[in-house]
Amino acid sequence: MDQRIEKMISYAHGLTYEDLPDEVVVRAKELVLDTIGCALGAAQSPPAGIVRSVASRVTSSTPATVMISGTRTTPDMATFANGVMARYLDWNDGYFGLHGGGHPSDMLAPTLAAVEAVRGGGKEVILGLALGYEIQCGLADAGGMDVKIGGNQTLDGGMGAVVLGSRILGLNREQMAHAINLAIAACRPLGQQSRGQLSHWKEAHVANASRNGIFCAMMAAEGLTGPEFDFAEPTQLLPFGGEGRGFRIMEAGIKHFPAGYFSQSAIETMQELRPQVRRLEDIKAIRLQTFPNGFNAMGSDPSRWRPTNHETADHSLPFVMAVALMEGDLTTRHYDQEYYLRPDVRAVMDKITIRVGEECVQAWPDQSLNIVEVELQSGEVLGAQVGLPLGHHKHPMTDANLEHKFRPMAEEYGKLPSSQVDRLLNRIRHLEEVQDISEVLRLTVGPSN
């Protein structure tokens, strides 16, 4: 057996809720709150309608709930639908190390589905989420599961989902090994979801890998076997959390703005500089220094200067910087109102140049440092830099910050009454006391549904 698979199995079987420090339990609840909020905020989006419609056509004797609609479907389809909605706004968390990263809150959808399938409660959700973070982020830290693919959040997420799903569904060691091997065989990502003008697959690729992970766990539980993988050049997994070691869930950052993780500090720099710019016409040039991850994902492709849809715009450094400078903020309405197509916004975007800066390279991944200079027509140069934006794990949001982010998504987009939002917040904040996770999921469904 591949030594990494064996290590993941041993860790999954050994980890218990009682092993989790209090700070991990608190952090898990914060991330459950934030991720459910992101899903509710995507309620009216086209992909959300599509996945809820498809999920409604599939029934199961061990059903799991699709948020917003309340549809009861198979655990794997609930994983996919909830995962797509949680990712659509690109407002869910981020975790990045030297060798890779992603959005490990993708692990909430498979956790909720698996826990509901076994009629579990909040403690099982917290445990499953912490386990999923360790596997997905641990693989990212190691450079990925497959050296031929390299660090890839799709495969890493699929591994997290199949391991946590197998643990929650009660698979033994042999069954879990087959489930993991089945998931590897079925998930060989291409990485095309991040290139050029982006599509709905940007919010669906890890959701699909997670759906596949839960499906493979369900199949292995019934006796389906998988091919045995033994990679010739395996990456080496670093120790997982516990026994005095920190848990990776504590190093995930929660986003303040609905945009790619790498742009959070760039947006804050534009907010800082905005009061010093009297008129947009006074700007001659805007120069951004960033780190390679930000440049490659959000600032290198020509499509980032001419986004034509939400998916590309929220991964465009020029767009999010321009809006923050012009409006003083970046919210979901800027995508709903298609600011990315406006000539005045594009005129500001055209003044922006982006390059990798040595100071930013040295700061990464401890900081997501972005340095901005705004040169005015007068010759004056304004400067600002931010390395620890609000939401970074070294500059965490308060509970009030999290609720301020959550409520508009739940009430305005999710169409939940304020009193129901109060109850939902209360249940998540006391998640360890919840005996049946279906109780929480039902609270994501508005009266009109």
Strand-helix topology:
Layout: H1 3-14, H2 22-41, H3 46-55, E1 64-65, E2 72-73, H4 75-88, E3 95-96, E4 101-102, H5 108-117, H6 122-142, H7 153-169, H8 173-186, H9 205-221, H10 264-273, E5 283-290, H11 292-298, H12 310-313, H13 317-327, H14 333-336, H15 343-349, E6 352-356, H16 358-363, E7 370-376, E8 381-386, H17 399-413, H18 418-429, H19 438-442
Parallel strand pairs: 5-6
Antiparallel strand pairs: 1-2, 3-4, 5-7, 7-8
Helix pairs in contact: 1-8, 2-4, 2-6, 2-17, 3-4, 4-5, 4-9, 5-6, 5-7, 5-9, 6-7, 7-8, 7-9, 8-9, 10-13, 13-15
Top keywords for this entry?
2 domains; 60s Ribosomal Protein L30, Chain: A; 449 residues; alpha+beta; 8 strands; 2-methylcitrate dehydratase PrpD; 4-stranded mixed β-sheet
